[in-house]
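ok so i was messing around last nite and threw this chain in just to see what happens. nothing serious, just curious
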Amino acid sequence: MRPLYGFWLSVLTAALWGMLPVAMLLLLGKVDAITVTWVRFLFSAICVGVFLYRKRQLPNLGMLDGSRRVMLAVAVLALLGNFILYLIGLDYLNPEATAVLIQLAPILLLLGSVYFNDEHLTVTEWAGAFVLFVGLLLFFNQRLGHLFGALGNDTLGVLIMLAAAVSWSIYGLMQKRLLQAMGSIQLTLMLYGAGALALAVFASPLVLLEMSAVQTAALLFGCLNMVFGYGAFTEALRVWQAAKVSAVIALAPVFTIIAMKVAVWGWPDVFVSSELNVLAYVGALVVVAGSMLAALGKQRQSH
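result:
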């Protein structure tokens, strides 16, 4: 039962992360990316903190030596950068594009592990990276001229999402080292708590009072998504192989495409169709396949 449990937790994670950019569209133009991120980090820190307090498992910063405290600071900044840049990128690109581009993050983490941790990629992992790159070209087939031409919104959006992916890979590299000194949930609380404190000075909480009911619901979904999405992800890693969890989570862009179709159908006055052609949809599936291939290549290496 554990593999089946892990599989469905991974599917839940992919679905939650896939639906997130569609919900966040409702906040664009009303609440800035820093404030949205601050609220999500604060909400998540409180939830995780209460959970650990009741279990008497609150983390202690003394568990970390000087070098790991520096790693924690870098991890916090990188994770904040990922969240903020993702929201900014969503202002330039459609949700499907952001979901597809962020699939570069695990590939960049693999490459970072090769450089910083002296790991070696398998043939399958290299093949996955190549397939993902081909998928990106197919997905953006309608806009390749704009992307490689003048610096327009499309190009700027892609660059911002690339920076978001790089930020996440840096966070992932730091997390690997930090997990050697503490549990994943304790580390999560430190990351969320430190992130909320770091953004408190720059956030604009008063703007939250001006949100509509729909925007409030979207922000609440973003907060719950962070708690339950990362919670399901952590639990899935506990009961199932990390490579298989990563492979299933690579399905997130598929859920984004489905969620966007439903949103356009259900609320045509709020959501606008992205008008992707058939080749773009094929490209999205190829990107997913490349991510899965790269993830499963790590499992083969461990055998």
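not much to say yet. The mean pLDDT is 89.
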